[in-house]
């Protein structure tokens, strides 16, 4: 039967409303002490950092909870002229890919590093959806330190999800595609023959966090949506939601909604490791960028890697299983004990909860319901712990507290439902404003939820804030979940389109935060580690300015001898050794951005003047009482000029040439 | 002048010793607490990593206990922990001892706070005046709007032909020139 998605949603919404699930009005939903609960006095710190994906902004933002104050926007996949990300010579390689320089992406999900299943505050990972990549941000500096591209992938949505000791970050492809080493120039309607899916296991170095693709698993051409690692008893397994088991390549809205069940895929990655060790993986020729930022040279490098190991389940029995899951599952979340896996069929009106113990038994008993493209399908009833009945419509995502409760978001019915994992009974529900996507509870996806708060990331804002034209900031709503009832205590706007977020107690990160880069450790090849090292050197058509900045002047601040046709590289070293005293640098007419240079760091702006004259340059970050004085001039002469290279600060040039 | 207005516009409520607590340490209670903020300045920022600012240099020097006490008495500490940059001429304890007997005790009296502040501001310039950028006979307008004159002979620096610069200490927010005499502002004309 052909079901129109919207008709179905409409009818089901109506049904839900009739079942007295009508959201309460906002006035009823807010309790009297809400302001006090979200209030963090001036000068006081928030209890939690929350790392929030920026969606189509390509960035990651950092908020304090419970105040909802924006602390930082970390540039990840998109250029950011404010922080010279993707504009300075040092950061440009970070956005390199096998497709060349890509200045934008769509960052959906967050994964904080874990030790023994608990957030440890070392790194946070984010995924680039569009040109498949994973980024690692160092939480000492809040800077993107590494980006790895994912081959054999298209639409890197099922990412990044992390295993309980940060052994792997997982990246699953949403869009199946012809594999990179095959001829991809095929008719699109040969999808079923030519299109494949993959999930990638990216190994993390235990100390540095450095990423490398350990192996990929070659899979039928379904769409991988979300994933979670097992934990505790289910450590060693990874669970992925899959939709489009119909393997449609057009009008998925209709054609991928045909079957009453799609799948949750269970991968035994310990087994996969054994197969890799036993040489069962095939080397495939691919090309993907691996970009690393070095905090000692203050520069990034980009390397194109050429090979990846691929495991085919045909050669690797007992590694991959499918479990039927109703109606195009989206979320796929494992509870703190690792026993329960919650699938969320986004078109369903139930929430199936799978049992890890039952999965193991069904596998042992070979309790199969046939196979899907050669991969065993476990019997639904054999692996089911139970179903949450009539929770709402359109379950998407589930987070957990430490007391055995789950919180599931419902997009269509714009609400959050709290239910009990043991008996699957619904115990509370609250409305959100409006159409909630992900939820985030501090530690919610780990073995140790810290609980206390829950943030709902909503997709539709409409009348929640003062109107700002056709588009409004996406709304986040903070709930107090310390009691039996969820209580809305704060509503705050966000950057881009947040999907997922993870929150962590502040002290796990704040105590390690970098204040300055030590100038003596600066290994940048163009650093000037003192004003006496400042200089200007001509190399053919390149002019290299080794410049220093300190309150409140540049050395040099008068530069002559540049000719039209030259490229001027301003290598600016911030000599400050004082926390929160960056200097900026800008020069008139640069088709580029500013530099924003942290204390002890060197950054480079390339400038190709397109006319002769004298061009002011200045510090862009209000650094000191004499910030307005922190400026200089650079003179550009005609191409055949005889004006020699000269530079100075505080002394005028000898009698000038005309 | 804008430099001065920057300095004197700061309102300092907490004293040097009493504001030692970190503004953000006791965060656990922060969300439920709704108490009046104690106003503290940049001097109380806990930071053992950055280079020392001019205040921390003075506080850390056994030869400058009189100066530090005077800065506290004049409520001038938080200003000098600001981004600056500052050039501070820092008289040693011995320099203060050279003043007529009773002068320092007199200046430290609460009723003479403005006078003390005036003298201390005569030891501070807003700007990072490295010796490399100074010339003999150059005047610098100090924070109290009175000029000092720099004397440089054979690479040795003096101020107002009366105070020798005996040490130069770079600070995160400027420069400290240790001097062996207290600079006394010229009388108003």
Q: Would you kindly provide a written description of the structure presented here, covering whatever features stand out?
A:
The complex is a heterodimer of chains A (658) and B (189). A ten-stranded mixed β-sheet of chain A has the order 6-7-8-9-17-18-13-12-11-10, covered by helices on one side. A six-stranded mixed β-sheet of chain A has the order 41-40-43-44-38-45, with no helix packed on it. The radius of gyration of chain A is 27 Å and the shape is globular. In chain A, 9% of the residues lie in helices and 43% in strands. Chain A is mainly beta and 658 residues long. Chain A has nine helices and 45 strands. Chain B is of the alpha+beta class and 189 residues long. Chain B is 24% helix and 20% strand. Chain B is built from seven helices and seven strands; from the N terminus they run H-H-H-H-E-H-H-H-E-E-E-E-E-E. In chain B, strands 2-1-7-6-5-4-3 form a seven-stranded mixed β-sheet. At the A-B interface, helix 3 of A face loops of B.
Short structural summary:
The complex is a heterodimer of chains A (658) and B (189). With 658 residues, chain A is mainly beta.
Q: Which tags fit this structure?
A:
heterodimer, A: 658 residues, mainly beta, ten-stranded mixed sheet, six-stranded mixed sheet, 45 strands, B: alpha+beta, seven-stranded mixed sheet, 7 helices
Topology, element by element:
The complex is a heterodimer of chains A (658) and B (189).
Chain A: H1 5-18, H2 26-29, H3 34-38, E1 48-53, E2 60-65, E3 69-74, E4 96-97, E5 100-101, E6 107-115, E7 118-128, E8 133-138, E9 143-149, E10 158-162, E11 168-172, H4 191-194, E12 197-204, E13 211-219, E14 223-229, E15 237-243, H5 252-255, E16 261-268, H6 269-277, E17 282-294, E18 299-311, E19 320-326, E20 329-334, E21 340-345, E22 350-355, H7 356-364, E23 368-372, E24 375-378, H8 380-383, E25 384-389, E26 395-400, E27 405-410, E28 415-420, E29 426-431, E30 436-440, E31 453-458, E32 475-480, E33 487-493, E34 501-505, H9 507-510, E35 535-539, E36 542-550, E37 553-555, E38 558-563, E39 567-574, E40 583-587, E41 595-597, E42 602-607, E43 613-618, E44 631-637, E45 646-648
Parallel strand pairs in A: 13-18, 36-39, 38-44
Antiparallel strand pairs in A: 1-2, 1-34, 2-3, 4-5, 6-7, 7-8, 8-9, 9-17, 10-11, 11-12, 12-13, 14-15, 15-16, 16-19, 17-18, 20-21, 21-22, 22-25, 23-24, 26-27, 27-28, 28-29, 30-31, 31-32, 32-33, 35-36, 36-37, 38-45, 39-42, 40-41, 40-43, 43-44
Chain B: H1 2-8, H2 54-59, H3 65-73, H4 77-80, E1 86-91, H5 93-97, H6 103-107, H7 113-121, E2 124-126, E3 139-141, E4 147-153, E5 156-159, E6 163-171, E7 174-179
Parallel strand pairs in B: 1-7
Antiparallel strand pairs in B: 1-2, 3-4, 4-5, 5-6, 6-7
């Amino acid at each position: 039967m052909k079901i129109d998605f919207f008709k179905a949603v409409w009818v089901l919404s109506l049904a839900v409303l009739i079942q007295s699930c009508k959201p309460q009005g906002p006035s009823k939903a807010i309790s009297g002490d809400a302001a006090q609960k979200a209030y963090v006095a001036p000068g006081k710190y928030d209890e939690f950092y929350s790392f929030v994906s920026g969606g189509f902004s390509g960035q990651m933002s950092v908020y304090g909870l419970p105040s909802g104050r924006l602390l930082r926007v970390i540039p990840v996949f998109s250029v950011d002229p404010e922080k010279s990300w993707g504009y300075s010579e040092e950061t440009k390689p970070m956005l390199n890919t096998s497709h060349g320089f890509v200045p934008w992406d769509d960052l959906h999900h967050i994964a904080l590093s874990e030790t023994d299943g608990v957030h440890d505050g070392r790194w946070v990972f984010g995924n680039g959806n569009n040109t498949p990549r994973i980024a690692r941000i160092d939480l000492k500096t809040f800077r993107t330190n590494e980006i790895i591209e994912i081959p054999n992938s298209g639409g890197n949505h099922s990412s990044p999800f992390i295993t309980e000791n940060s052994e792997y970050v997982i990246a699953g492809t949403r869009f199946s595609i012809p594999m990179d080493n095959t001829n991809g120039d095929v008719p699109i309607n040969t999808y079923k023959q030519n299109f494949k899916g993959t999930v990638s296991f990216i190994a993390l170095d235990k100390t540095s966090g450095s990423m490398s693709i350990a192996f990929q698993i070659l899979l039928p051409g379904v769409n991988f949506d979300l994933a979670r690692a097992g934990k505790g008893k289910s450590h060693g397994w990874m669970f992925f939601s899959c939709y489009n088991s119909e393997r449609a390549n057009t009008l998925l809205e209709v054609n991928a909604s045909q079957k009453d069940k799609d799948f949750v895929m269970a991968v035994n990655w310990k087994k996969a490791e054994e197969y890799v060790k036993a040489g069962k993986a095939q080397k495939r020729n691919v090309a993907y960028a691996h970009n690393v930022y070095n905090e000692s040279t203050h520069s990034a490098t980009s390397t194109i890697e050429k090979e990846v190991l691929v495991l085919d389940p045909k050669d690797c029995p007992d590694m991959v299983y499918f479990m039927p899951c109703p109606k195009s599952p989206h979320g796929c979340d494992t509870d703190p004990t690792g026993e329960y896996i919650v699938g969320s069929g986004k078109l369903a009106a139930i929430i199936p909860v799978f049992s890890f113990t039952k999965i193991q038994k069904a596998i042992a008993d070979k309790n199969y319901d046939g196979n899907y493209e050669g991969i065993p399908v476990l019997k639904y009833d054999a692996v089911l712990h139970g179903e949450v009945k009539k929770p709402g419509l359109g379950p998407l995502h589930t987070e957990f507290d430490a007391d055995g409760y789950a919180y599931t978001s419902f997009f269509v019915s714009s609400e959050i439902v709290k239910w009990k994992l043991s008996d699957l009974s619904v115990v509370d529900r609250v409305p959100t404003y409006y159409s909630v996507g992900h939820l985030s509870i501090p530690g919610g996806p780990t073995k140790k939820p810290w609980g206390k708060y829950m943030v709902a990331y909503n997709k539709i804002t409409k009348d929640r804030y003062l109107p700002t034209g056709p588009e409004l900031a996406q709304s986040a709503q903070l709930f107090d979940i310390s009691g039996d009832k969820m209580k809305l205590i704060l509503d705050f706007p966000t950057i881009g389109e947040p999907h997922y977020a993870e929150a962590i107690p502040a002290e796990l990160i704040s105590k390690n935060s970098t204040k300055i880069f030590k100038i003596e450790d600066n290994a940048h090849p163009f650093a000037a580690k003192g004003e006496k090292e400042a200089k200007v050197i001509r190399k053919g058509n390149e002019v290299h300015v080794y410049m220093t900045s300190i309150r409140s002047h540049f050395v040099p601040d008068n530069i002559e001898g540049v000719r039209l046709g030259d490229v001027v590289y301003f290598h600016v070293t911030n000599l400050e050794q004082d926390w929160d005293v960056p200097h900026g640098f800008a020069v008139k007419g640069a088709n580029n951005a500013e530099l924003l240079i942290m204390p002890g760091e060197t950054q480079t702006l390339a400038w190709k003047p397109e006319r002769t004259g004298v061009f002011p340059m200045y510090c862009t970050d209000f650094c000191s009482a004499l910030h307005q004085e922190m400026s200089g001039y650079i003179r550009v002469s005609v191409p055949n000029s005889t004006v020699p290279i000269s530079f100075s600060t505080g002394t005028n040039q000898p009698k000038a040439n005309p | 002048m804008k430099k001065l207005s920057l300095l004197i516009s700061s309102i300092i409520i907490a004293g040097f010793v009493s504001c030692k607590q970190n503004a953000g340490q006791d965060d656990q209670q922060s969300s439920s607490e709704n108490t009046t903020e104690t106003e503290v300045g940049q001097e109380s920022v806990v930071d053992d990593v950055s280079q020392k600012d001019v205040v921390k240099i003075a506080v850390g020097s056994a030869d400058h206990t009189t100066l530090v006490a005077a800065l506290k008495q004049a409520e001038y500490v938080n200003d000098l922990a600001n981004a600056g940059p500052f050039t501070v001429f820092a008289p040693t304890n011995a320099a203060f001892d050279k003043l007529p007997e009773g002068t320092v005790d007199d200046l430290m009296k609460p009723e003479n706070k403005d006078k003390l502040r005036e003298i201390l501001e005569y030891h501070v310039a807003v700007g990072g005046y490295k010796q490399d950028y100074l010339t003999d006979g150059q005047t610098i307008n100090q924070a109290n709007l009175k000029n000092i004159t720099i004397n440089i002979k054979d690479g040795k620096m003096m101020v107002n032909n009366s105070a020798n610069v005996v040490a130069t200490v770079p600070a995160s927010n400027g420069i400290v020139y240790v001097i062996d005499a207290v600079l006394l502002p010229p009388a108003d004309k």
